[in-house]
């Protein structure tokens, strides 16, 4: 008998504490292994963060961090920063899908469902770069402001348009 497990993940809204985590992903010789993985063990996932609508960061228990670039953009992923996924074998793989959870009243409603890509190991420098990009996007989105604008009355607009039109020069038909 196979049992399906649905996992709901709230992606971290605060900036990750990149420098404070021990990210010793290098082996004893100091070489960084960049071999992409098809799957990760669900029990080892500690934190997940959307960088944009196509990129997820999976921070694992211990010292590994993976970037998962989805094959296509997943609308609402970065905005909502919440996902759900189902697994039957305790592993989340590149062939699996995630569903964006959208806030709906006091609960959540399923949004777009998108397929995952490969899990690519990240170095501490790469993690810092991606987080800087994500924080910059959040600042740009929150920096947009709207202000009221007064529109001119139709009479004022007509007067301005007629004043702006050049006067027609009289033509002398007798010369032609």
Describe this structure in words.
With 176 residues, this protein is of the alpha+beta class. The chain has one domain (5-141). It contains three helices and ten strands; from the N terminus they run E-E-E-E-E-H-E-E-E-E-E-H-H. The chain has helices at residues 77-80, 124-143, 154-164; strands at residues 5-10, 39-41, 45-52, 55-60, 65-69, 82-87, 91-93, 97-104, 107-115, 119-121. A hairpin with a 2-residue loop joins strand 8 (97-104) and strand 9 (107-115). The protein is globular.
Mean pLDDT equals 76
Q: Report how far the terminal alpha carbons are from each other.
A: 100 Å
- Largest sheet report: 4 strands, antiparallel
What is the 3D form? globular
Regarding quaternary structure, what we see is: single chain
Q: Roughly how much helix do the residues carry, as a percent range?
A: 10-25%
Q: By helix and strand content, what is the structural category? A: alpha+beta
Total number of strands: 10
Radius of gyration: 27 Å
- Strand proportion, as a percent range, falls in 25-35%
How do the helices and strands follow one another from N- to C-terminus? Answer: EEEEEHEEEEEHH
Number of helices, where a helix is a run of at least 4 consecutive DSSP H or I residues: 3
The tally of structural domains comes to 1
Low-confidence stretches: 12-28
Strand order of the largest sheet: 1-6-8-9
